[in-house]
Design brief:
Blueprint: H1 18-34, E1 43-44, E2 50-55, E3 58-63, H2 70-78, E4 88-94, E5 97-103, E6 108-109, H3 110-113, H4 119-138, H5 140-143, H6 158-172, H7 176-192, E7 199-201, E8 210-212, E9 216-219, E10 226-228, H8 231-242, H9 253-265, H10 271-293, H11 304-312, H12 321-324
Antiparallel strand pairs: 1-2, 2-3, 3-5, 4-5, 6-8, 7-10, 8-9
Length: 325
């Protein structure tokens, strides 16, 4: 998820209470010191839902709010080696804020590296990112006890999703046709999701959650892992490859690769409804977050999740068009 625009403090903390951010940094410094690190020598890594610092041979990730990371740590320890997740050195909580410390892995955040890659390398990266995610999907029988059937952008109930749709409608002033289509897409997802195989999805299969060192060497941050249709990860893969940071569709080799992967792995009967529903739920969650920031820098209609959501509600299906024909 990309943070909404704003000002103040570190760019990743611009919409957070400065005192809360300072507390998280102090807690992270204590954790880092326990593992031989000095936060003043470590760099702040990409990512929004948690705060991460990397350096001195370790990576420290700590929750912004008092929440446990024990479930995620248990899942990571059970992941197959092919996922490439760095080794966990420790896990715990400080004043209720869960934290995980892993070994530092040489590499660059894939989101940061992306603009420097050739089209062929970007295409390769999309295939490799999917390979890492598939390792978790394939291990679902052994991993499923570590994840829930909701979380991240997948609400627990259709009622919760409908409530999010109502908030989006209130903010964007959807037309009656858009409103009807939005509810049909949501209903279609929740109706068909129980009918297909349930896989352990990464739940946030974004470029920023992978490491690149000439190839994708690791898939990180399984905090939003969720048990459900594989289309949950597919919708994010396609979005990452086909949509710019500003929310514009991009034609590229990477986008073609993502579409090829999705077409190959979509459920043959319910895949279109599932990937469309997952994509809409993804943007509803992001729109909720942006609404919470109450930024006046742009009109609500111009926000990235607003733009993507309304595109997904058009007759062709926005960036998913080739998969919905």
């Amino acid at each position: 998820m990309t943070a909404a625009p704003g000002a103040g403090g570190h760019p990743l903390d611009q919409h957070r209470d400065p005192s809360a951010s300072a507390l998280v940094r102090a807690l992270a410094a204590d954790v880092a010191a326990h593992y031989g690190g000095d936060l003043t020598r470590m760099r702040r890594a990409n990512g929004y839902s948690n705060a991460t610092w990397v350096g001195d041979g370790i990576a420290v990730r700590i929750a912004h709010t008092p929440v446990s990371m024990a479930r995620e740590a248990a899942l990571v320890r059970a992941l197959p080696r092919e996922v490439g997740h760095p080794e966990i050195l420790g896990e715990g909580a400080a004043e209720g804020h869960g934290w995980i410390v892993t070994k530092e892995v040489r590499g660059q955040n894939l989101h940061e590296a992306w603009p420097t890659l050739t089209p062929a390398a970007q295409r390769q990266a999309i295939h490799q990112l999917w390979f890492r995610a598939r390792a978790a999907h394939d291990a679902s029988p052994f991993l499923r006890t570590h994840v829930a059937s909701h979380g991240g952008f997948i609400p627990a109930t259709v009622g919760a999703a409908t409530a999010a749709a109502g908030r989006a409608d209130g903010a964007l002033g959807l037309s009656s046709a858009q409103r009807s289509r939005l509810h049909d897409i949501i209903e279609g997802y929740f109706r068909t999701a129980p009918l297909v195989a349930q896989s352990v999805n990464h739940g946030d299969l974004a470029l920023m959650n992978a490491l690149w060192d000439g190839e994708v060497i690791a898939l990180l941050d399984f905090e939003f892992a969720v048990l459900g249709p594989i289309e949950i990860d597919l919708c994010r893969l396609v979005c990452e490859a086909r949509v710019s940071g500003e929310g514009q569709r991009v034609d590229s080799e990477a986008g073609e690769a993502a579409l090829e992967i999705a077409a190959r792995h979509l459920d043959p009967v319910h895949g279109s409804a599932l990937i469309h529903g997952a994509a809409v739920l993804d943007q509803l969650r992001d729109l909720d977050i942006w609404l919470g920031h109450d930024s006046a820098d742009e009109r609500v209609e111009d926000w990235r999740p607003s733009r993507l959501l309304t595109d997904l509600l058009d007759a062709e299906g926005g960036y998913l068009t080739p998969l919905l024909r």
